[in-house]
Amino acid sequence: MHLFKWLIIRVRMKSIRSVYKIGNGPSSSHTVGPYNAANVFKKRHPEADHFEVTLFGSLAFTGAGHGTEKAIKTVIENCDVHFDKDRIGLPHPNTMLFKAFKDGKLIDEKTILSIGGGSIVIEGEESSDEKEIYPQKNLTEIIEECKKKNISLIDFIYQNEEADLKEYLYEIWNAMKAAVERGIKTEGVLPGGLNISRKAKTLFEKRCYNEDPDTTLNRKIAAYAYAVSEENASENIVVTAPTCGAAGVIPSIFYYMEKDRGFPEEEIIDALAVAGIIGNVIRTNASISGAECGCQAEIGSACSMGAAGLAHLYGLSLDEIEYAAEVAMEHNLGLTCDPVNGLVQIPCIERNAVAAMRSISSVTLSRLLYQTRKISFDEVIATMYKTGRDMSEKYRETSHGGLAEIYRNKD
Ligand code: SF4
User: Fold this and answer.
1) Could you tell me if residue 212 is inside a domain?
2) 292 CB under 6 A from ligand 1?
3) pTM given for the model
4) Residue 188 belongs to domain spanning
5) How do residues 93-105 score in pLDDT, each as one tens digit?
6) Distance from C-alpha of 236 to C-alpha of 224, rounded to nearest angstrom
7) DSSP track, 7-49
8) Last residue of a domain, one of 57, 90, 122
9) Whose Cα sits closest to atom 4 in ligand 1?
């Protein structure tokens, strides 16, 4: 398992496109990844008349609540999906075994890993859909390069990425805004059986008694984060940022900045690019998967990305951007993944709102204190990965520990 992981992470960085993907919720690794895997495997076997997929690890434990079977059957109708909760020694916590049959005979089988953010790795094959484009491997090397060439982080990104990145980011931003705008208008109860009412519309419309500007900011940020997270929980279209479970953080911050604070859209696009490079560094050097490293890898990463993007939007320096991203991740270290009933609702939806507010606070701290820092962003990311690897499986998207366990016992 460790060898395979080493092969996955010790590569150069891919385009920041790999961080932002449009797809159906509620979980990038449990719906978007399996959906993509089913697509790839089905296309390879047009002659097959039957398929079987076995889900292992976190996919077996929370795949029912996260909608994994439905995502696979959307692509392959003639498919039996099995949940194997007993297999140990897996190459990744989100492992799938795809089998294709013709006239009752097995014609091919492939182990496919859903490694987070909707990305997949087919065991024994190099990923061909995401090109490696950055020579640098971490933020320290990126900052060194920017300082050597005397360029900003955003210039560094656009110099390395393909020319149509901005066009792609406009598409991403439009999908993010559409999710916010649907979510703040929609009422009703979320699917899955927890009987949770949507709250974004109330948060958006209802002012607090004697509301001051700080409360308005927090209320609106929360409303936008709830809006996207409730869309995600309803299996509607969202953007991984870097995952579906954490999809509310980035849109909420930047929707507020565009609609309520009047920042021009082209500046929001650049902020998304800066947030994306931070997500990319985390994805390359650690993990963005809750099944692998707990919620610190999902919500922590989104919080860190949001802080970096906002610091860029405010025109802060490279060092201030790094510090904001570092603070945001540092105070998510150890955050466990314990979704109640295997649904991406409790604690996930509220957690998106709190993380967005924490991104903003991290930027405030960085403006005042960046010259005093002792820990680099890369050191915090290495700590997050090590903490995640040390974390009991109970707290890595299995719904066996934490709130998921207490809630079940309470029932
Ligand atoms: S607790 Fe965090 S990592 Fe786990 S499903 Fe919810 S948002 Fe994702």
Assistant:
1) yes
2) no
3) 0.92
4) 133-410
5) 999 999 999 999 9
6) 15
7) HHHSS-EE-GGGT--EEESS-IIIIIHHHHHHHHHHHH-TT-S
8) 122
9) 337
In the DSSP assignment, the letter for residue 238 is: E
Amino acid at 55: L
Question: How far apart, in whole angstroms, are the C-alpha atoms of residue 2 and residue 10?
Answer: 12
Residue 312 and residue 375 in one domain: yes
CATH number of the structural domain spanning residue 34: 3.30.1330.90
For 312-323, the pLDDT digits (tens) are 999 999 999 999
Angle (CA) 329 384 275, round 5°: 40
Distance 347 CA to ligand 1 centre (A): 7
Going from the Cα of 352 to the center of ligand 1, the distance in angstroms, rounded, reads 9
Q: Domains in the chain: how many in total?
A: 2
169: tokens are 């980011």
Coil/strand/helix, residue 52: strand
Tell whether 187 and 66 lie within a shared domain: no
C-alpha distances in Å from residue 381, one per residue of 66, 91, 112, 375: 27, 22, 26, 10
* 290 and 361 inside one domain: yes
Q: Cα separation of 10 and 90, whole Å?
A: 19
User: 265-285 vs 377-390: helix axis angle to the nearest 10?
Assistant: 50
Query: Is the separation of the CB atoms in 250 and 359 below 8 Å?
Result: no
Give the whole-angstrom CA distance, residue 391 versus residue 398. 12
My answer on whether 223 and 315 are in the same domain is yes
Query: Beta partners for 56?
Result: 84, 95
Specify the residue with its C-alpha closest to ligand 1, atom 3: 295
